[in-house]
Amino acid sequence: MKKNSITTLNQFISDQQNKFPYVQGSLSRIFSAIQLAAKMINRDVRKAGLIDILGNFGETNVQGEEQKKLDVISNDVFKKLIDMGSDCVCIVSEEDEGVHWCPDGREAKYILAIDPLDGSSNIDVNASIGSIFSVYKRPSMDKPVTEADILQMGRHQVAAGYVIYGSATMFVYTTGNGVNGFTLDDSIQEFCLSHPDIKTPENGSILSVNEGNLNDFPKGVQDYIAWCKETNKEEKRPYSARYIGSLIADFHRNLLKGGVYLYPPTAKAPNGKLRLLYECNPMAFLAEQAGGKASNGKMRIMDIQPTEFHQRTPLIIGSAAMVERIEKMMGSEASGT
Ligand code: AHM
Ligand code: MG
Which atom in ligand 1 lies closest to the alpha carbon of residue 249? Predict the structure, then answer.
């Protein structure tokens, strides 16, 4: 990026189309819709305290969790904008039990998975939240899309990203050619390139985990957390504990500074809490594209074959050396070594 030059997200995407032919026109239409949805949700998040959209909607979603008004609003905004002007067959959303089939999507090329507003327990307390998206190509244009076509492994994603509504609003994405971050300039309402070609440190010293669940974690994870707290100046231990309880915000910090986020399995929730399709896979794609790793403790997140839309998986994601160490400690527990 030249000093003092501005590259908007739209300009960047059109440059990418020239460089990488598979970032085709219709994929960029999906980006336009997501970008506009992000600006609208950002507007609502910023004034949530002023108007009556804080708090619960009074219904529970498919996971049995209370829906927040902003969750519902964000889901509607995404679906409407994707329906209006993109090349999507259907959308799998955290907020909807079934698949949303786009009304004009019969001939469309792409399948979208979204978490329209992640970290929603943070809405009422003005902490960072975000939206996550993941895009797949429809396997065949000759046959109607089936459930099996939607349940693709993460390694088949053609694009993924998140929008973080933090102290600034940022759009971070990958199409498999590295990770780039754009900050929303409020005055012109454009996402401008601020973090080109993000690379995450190979190792870090930040640990992000809900330690309240410590006693329920597998022994290998408990041992790792204890190891993080030991003193070793050369290895910068003890590590710092940082946990917002908002995956995007925790991931974003660790991506830039180096660290690891974990949501391990527990006795009560053997598959952890986070969802494979619209939380773990897109973040895993970004992590790997930035030089990091994402695992469920036993295997690469993006190699898990999904069998359900709202499937959960344990998640260990961040700096490669940290993820590998946890996998090793969990693995040695499983093998009894
Ligand atoms: P949500 O999709 O209902 O918002 O839940 C996902 C969130 C993640 O953003 C966050 O990392 C995690 O749940 C926090 O869970 P916990 O409060 O159990 O630590
Ligand atoms: Mg979520």
Answer: 9
Tell me how many domains the chain contains: 2
Smallest-distance ligand from the CA of 279? 2
The number of beta carbons lying within 10 Å of the beta carbon of residue 24 is: 14
pLDDT tens figures, 159-212: 999 999 999 999 999 999 999 999 999 999 999 999 999 999 999 999 999 999
Domain shared by 164 and 113, yes or no:
yes
Q: Which residues are CB-contacts of 305 (< 8 A; sequence separation ≥ 6)?
A: 151, 153
Distance 273 CA to ligand 1 centre (A): 7
Residue 201 lies in a domain: no
- Is the pLDDT score of 154 beyond 90? yes
pLDDT tens across 59-116, in order? Answer: 676 766 665 688 999 999 999 999 997 799 999 999 999 999 999 999 999 999 999 9
Is residue 238 within 6 Å of ligand 1 at its C-beta? no
Cβ 63 under 6 angstroms from ligand 1: no
Residues in contact with 64: Cβ distance below 8 Å, sequence separation at least 6, in sequence order:
none
Residues 53 and 111 in one domain: yes
- Look up the CATH number of the domain holding residue 102: 3.30.540.10
**How far, in Å, CA of 124 to CA of 128, rounded?**
11
Indicate the top mutation candidate among 65, 94, 118 to test ligand 1's pocket, ranked by most ligand atoms within 8 A of CB.
Answer: 118
Name the residue with higher pLDDT: 20 or 84.
84
Q: Is 273 in the pocket of ligand 1 (CB under 6 A)?
A: yes
Amino acid at 92: V
